[in-house]
């Protein structure tokens, strides 16, 4: 009997979870050294195939740039591994001999991982390495439009793991994913944690599954070019960042806010770096292709080049155009250029001063990027602190490329392809998610202090400590109004009784 696609996908998922659970029970008994050797082999194999996997991703999805996906794959394999290789994640991870507390790590179990179409290979590498480093098994649901390259990535990881002695089934996947299979994966009784990277619907489903979940929100990232910035250098970084992999990283800048004092200089530098400014007529055509409804971005432009998007909009631009820009003065769901556009399309806002710039950036974040990231170019460290405190984000990127800076490529942030948005974005964590988020910690704690517990019915007066009596005596003397004079014993006893009575009635 031939099952239909949905039923086949669901059955494949169930089989993968069953195998993963069995494999994880064996895997969690491995030593830290053995697990580390397996993780090292996976990272090396994924890194060695980074270029081929980047090519497959671009061919299958039609998104991004091979050379840029190669860099993302290298971050997702080598950089992630290097950042976690020396961490203790199995068994005793810390002992505080002074306070007599011992911390013991234990894995979640089976992790369900949802992979986006924008970063289908790098995210698969990253989640696999982080999950196994912490003693877990992983079952992956690829995006349907990126299933081949994602599954190929997982096969490379699994083969390397098996060669190092990992149990069969530790890395599983759905080769023909469906929405129903993905939803059932997230609610499967043997799945213990969800790592969801994708559209808002999937992230919401992860948080609604009843399971612990790490999901990430959208990143409508504003970048502020303040008047003290090195304009030439800053603009080059911003253009390189916005065009990196055709804008498919969620931490990519989405709108430029520039001080009026340097606006013309910024525009000249943008043009020097291959930006095309839309006139009012062209801007209208672009708006029609960017958005398919209030607050909704046209998926056909995601990850496409500026030339391809111009073609879709029916406009002619120079052949060296890297970025399409329109000046804007409004923010809202009905303003297409103000939305999160995972493509080389920019809005340019002009601010009279830093206070006006701050308000504009807040508008953009409140539209759809709360909790994610904010970028600023300036030489004023005081201003960095001011904006850092004011912006409702989890990352403030300073004088760097926001897209790859947020994932740890150009900064000291933890290398990660899943960036938490914290309470601002309705997420459980504001961190760059990595191995330390994928295990639990139990604590052995020894008693250090004796406790004098009052028995039921014991009056408060009987439980008053010597220090309290001293305090009450002093209070009694002060109340007498004659702290410096001799007071007879009877009077002191009477005063203490009065104070004790007041104390007991409190």
TrEMBL record:
Keyword presence, DNA-binding: no
Residue span(s) of domain Aldehyde dehydrogenase: 11-273
Protein name: Aldehyde dehydrogenase
SUPFAM superfamilies: ALDH-like
A molecular-function term among this protein's GO annotations: oxidoreductase activity, acting on the aldehyde or oxo group of donors, NAD or NADP as acceptor
Keywords assigned: Oxidoreductase
Organism: Oceanobacillus sojae
Matching InterPro entries: Acetaldehyde_DH_acetylating, Ald_DH/histidinol_DH, Ald_DH_C, Ald_DH_N, Aldehyde_DH_dom
Keyword Ubl conjugation attached: no
Transmembrane domains' residue ranges: none
